């Protein structure tokens, strides 16, 4: 094998279609959390000029992520690829968890009208004494919540009230890291033929549905056994396996390795799975206001993903004018996602306290989320990723090929 450097081909032109889809999806997540989910968790967070009840943005972001897993994983060593993903995602997440914990501790104690425990240790981990004086007290996170979120295991214990999510969006990172690890493990295997791959993708859609609704049917009043099953099912991310499957199937289709009729079946199956996994109790609970916009929104965005995967780039008249802004927002989408939800609720509550109306509060919260997302991206995600991958590059064997990591690496989440 030659040891002289090989020329790196020119970087492909960035496609605005993918960036636009990511921005639309992440904005749908943010608006849904701010205008709708926030009021469900904190009843005082109302008064916005509109409500976005649809839940499809996170699922679409995971579809796009799975598509680019296939596009980038085939370019080099799977272990190096997996390290690139971990180095980019985990440090920013850990910093976001610490910041969210500190801010939430302070804000929840203040909002609930409780005295601060004495000392630094008391503030960080102590339990405030007395009863809340505010009619809508906020949950005060504990050291157990902090450790569980740093360890990415809240899904395995919150049903038993052992610990809780510091931010409802954090469920996505352990799910996607598990998917990345499975992809890196399975990719180089000799038995991974085209037929086996397609069969595995269908299994990722169908098997979780069978487990969820046939093996252990869901219940409105789950028993201890049901809670254990739910913890395992959701902890392993089986409720979102279909979005990874359709993302990989779309990549195969984009490479003309799946027929049109076959990808159409995949799309229909993914839409059905999305509806059933997100709204399993729609006949028992009044969720139609969320269910139909969510399912239709997912289907429409999924069709647009199909167009982006197989069709030409979206160079529509006038789109080039906003392309830089769209690309910038897409580039900070992971950091934006990490800090927008719980910290956004805290900012919204603080603005309510000083009398800011909903029509001003909404743009203020969204703008603050964008600025905070940029700070996390520029201050943590990118520099730490460069540092960690550079350290690995220095230890890399001379004959090991260099792998670039220019594809989108957003971790979707939230609703």
From TrEMBL:
InterPro entries, per database record: Acyl_transf_3_dom (IPR002656), Acyltransferase_3 (IPR050879)
Signal sequence segment: none
Transmembrane stretches, start-end: 20-40, 52-74, 86-108, 168-187, 199-220, 232-253, 260-280, 292-310, 322-339, 359-380
Keywords carried by this UniProt record: Acyltransferase, Membrane, Transferase, Transmembrane, Transmembrane helix
A Gene Ontology molecular function term of the record: acyltransferase activity
Enzyme Commission numbers on file: 2.3.-.-
Classification via Pfam families: Acyl_transf_3
Region of interest (Disordered), residue spans: 393-415
Domain Acyltransferase: 16-377
EC top class named in words: transferase
PANTHER family, sorted: ACETYLTRANSFERASE, BLR2367 PROTEIN
Name this protein carries in UniProt: Acyltransferase
Organism of this sequence: Amycolatopsis heterodermiae
